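anyone seen this seq b4? input:
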Amino acid sequence: MRRRTVLATALMSAVVAPGRAQAATPGPSVSRTGTTTLDSQAIYFVSYDGLVNNNSFQKNGLLTYKGYQYAAWYTSTRNAVVARRRLGASTWSTVTLSHQLKSDDSHNVISLGVSRIDGRLHIDMDSHSDGYFYVKSVAGLMDNPGTTAWTSSAFGAVQTSLDGLALTSQFTYPQFVSTPEGKLQLSYRVGISGNGRNALAEYDGSSWKALGEWSSSTGTYTSSHGSSTARNMYLHGIDYDVNGRLHSFFTWREQNAAVMCSSGGITNHDTGYVYSTDRGRTWRNDAGALVATTGTSDTVAVTDPGLVVDPLSPDHSLMNQESQFTDSAGLPHAIISYVPGRFGQCTTDYVADRTANGRAFHVRKNSSGTWQKTEIPVPLNSSQRTKLVLDKYDNAYAVFPYGRIAGASKSSGYTDWTLLYDGSGLNAFGEVVIDEMRVKADNTLSFMYQEKSSGTTPSALHVVDFALPA
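predicted toks r here
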């Protein structure tokens, strides 16, 4: 009895003793814990300034679920492969799917999703404004990985529809997202660059259903140089927060180059934001006004009010499909990048100008409902995209091309961005694919990258892990 009393007294003293300082919330930090090799000879070709195995808009090319990590890529023989490992393991188990990459197009990525409602892994791949290829696993594969064989028999046949649901003949940018109830949604673009619409489909554990399109390609946008009457909305992501709200940042891509100061630029303009409180059935602007109903003629249009949270003309080579994340309070954060006005008011070669003078910015909504924007003082040195994740303390991490990592603390109001890791030793080509789910699973920042090569010479594909504050 006395031992229990002493222990209880000590515990109470440790918790409530007056004047004793509590441990400060840790700021951002990364500690490299290991690197594994997925494929020593992964397919390599540069297309649209990117690689098919490492386009950062993949959601998800790398994911964690119930203690296992999953990855997908194309081999040097063009075969689609899906692999898994127990978290912390040094080797991966692979399954080669009965599909080969049909063209040297870096848009034709592989995306993975998990339907928690039945424990299936879903795979969508190999499309750019044309047909897609879809595979799903047997039920329960993701729920019992330790006792379920990781073999080709765990996966069904490759399909050109979602179990008979065709969707569209002009399909691009598959992004899977799980609903709070455990259903699985698929976000995709219908149409082509400069003239396309965003749409959603949903899997309920028994079948897929098309929810329909929710963004518009029509309406007139006019800049100081000219006008355009067609476009598409490029998403920075589509994510549910802890409260079940669905968030999406975006930028518009105009079809008509007349809106730019120079034909060598890129027609992206403005950073917009919408959200949904009913699983993507309707969409609202930042003020809460209804701007779209999915599957109807009332879709999000460039002329709708209240969409833009950071205005920018098409003259600064704003990148599309960058990155977003939500924090522990459900507040949205994004990374955007462009050439700031201090380097000139007209980009004439968007790849060269972004490489020379591009900068990334952290855009977020604070707890008072105000949008804030902070430049990250790390030159892009690349035309490509940066990824964003937040740790359990809501510290922010920007993973730049070549695997460089910068961080900023919540306690500073995200004003103390600094480089934490310079990417040395990775020999990474450019963009990386982040495991968004692993950050939440075990405080690990894990990303997939491919080594630089030349021409079409295959190169090694890796996953590198960094421990975040415990």
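The chain is about 5% helix and 40% strand. The CA atoms of residues 117 and 181 lie 8 Å apart. kinda curious what u guys think
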